[in-house]
Structures are given as structure tokens and as C-alpha cells.
UniProtKB/TrEMBL annotation:
Gene Ontology molecular-function annotations: ubiquitin protein ligase activity; zinc ion binding
Entry keywords, A to Z: Metal-binding, Nucleus, Zinc, Zinc-finger
Keyword rRNA processing (UniProt): no
Official protein name in the record: Unnamed protein product
Region (Disordered) location: 83-126
Gene3D superfamilies: Phosphatidylinositol 3-kinase Catalytic Subunit, Chain A, domain 1 (3.10.20.90)
Domain DWNN, first and last residues per copy: 5-83
Pfam family, one: DWNN
Native species: Aspergillus oryzae (Yellow koji mold)
Main location, first listed in the record: nucleus
Length: 163
């Protein structure tokens, strides 16, 4: 099943699409795909920020600042390219190299209603699933790890909806 997330830079009129398999994509993978599709280079001269495209609030409140956060399919986001804090030391190089973070920040986003304990548990489950996916050696192991990750995400979503 092919899913997609729509993104656009603030200066663009029409959004572009990142396609992936599954029900969601991590912020890390989305940033990596945006950099590749947009041909932004090696990432040494810029930072890349992703924001939820919800036009009613201050954009800083809607930033996806944790790379392990899963963005659901069919979501629209705004990508923003910012200058590097120091010349030649842009944070986007991490996305180009493919070194994904293992641990989440465990900080709840402003628009989440759930408690921090629930966020911590779901983040740990997602982190474990991503770690399992990264450690898989054969194609079959990778497929099984992906299915396990999606099943865990679905269980967490069902638990949140039941509250």
C-alpha cells in the first residue's frame, strides 16, 4: 500500500508529494526524502524544519522537532530551510548521511492532548520498532519489522481513540 505526505516550502504555491509504504513516516525519513527530492545538496549550509500545515496558530507551535515522531499519511506539512548556525555546520547533513536517532526527546507537542506518560510509552514503542527495522539484515526481517512497527502504531492509535 503506497501512502503519501504532501509538503511545500513557504515560497511554493503547489505542494509536492513524498510517497512511502505504511501508515506513517518518521520526521527523519520525511526530511531525508524532501532533501533528496528537492536536490538541496549535502546539508552543510542549512537546517531543515518541518511544520504542520494548520493555519490557525503560530507556526513555531506546530514544528515537528522530534525526528522519531511519526507523521500520518495524507498529512500536509510546510518545509522550511533555515541558515546553518555556523558556516559549514548545517544540521541537515544528518539526514543526508542517514544516521537516524535512536532515542526520542520524550517532550509532548503542544497540540497533543495525551499525558506525557502515554507519549513516552508510545515513543519508546516506535523507537524500538525503528531500531528493530534498522537492525534487520535480510529482506524478510525488514518486512516483518515494518509490519510489527505498523501493528504497534495501530494498537497505540486504537488505545488513544478509546480514551
Amino acid at each position: 500500500m503506497s501512502s503519501s505526505v504532501h509538503f511545500k516550502f513557504k515560497s511554493q504555491k503547489e505542494p509536492s508529494r513524498v510517497t512511502f509504504d505504511g501508515t506513517g513516516i518518521s520526521v527523519f525519513e520525511l526530511k531525508r526524502e524532501i532533501i533528496n527530492q528537492s536536490r538541496l545538496g549535502d546539508g552543510t549550509d542549512f537546517e531543515l524544519s518541518i511544520y504542520n500545515e494548520d493555519t490557525g496558530e503560530d507556526i513555531r507551535d506546530l514544528e515537528y522537532d522530534d525526528d522519531t515522531t511519526i507523521i500520518p499519511r495524507s498529512t500536509s506539512v510546510i518545509a522550511r530551510r533555515l541558515p546553518a548556525s555556523r558556516p559549514g555546520k548545517g544540521g541537515a547533513t544528518r539526514y543526508v548521511s542517514g544516521k537516524m536517532p535512536i532515542n526520542a526527546r520524550n517532550a509532548p507537542r503542544n497540540d497533543q492532548v495525551s499525558s506525557s506518560r502515554t507519549v513516552s510509552n508510545s515513543t519508546n514503542t516506535v523507537s524500538n520498532g525503528v531500531l528493530e527495522l534498522n537492525n534487520a539484515q535480510t529482506e524478510e526481517e525488514k518486512i516483518n519489522a515494518l509490519f510489527n512497527l505498523q501493528a504497534n502504531q495501530w494498537k497505540e492509535q486504537q488505545q488513544e481513540m478509546a480514551k
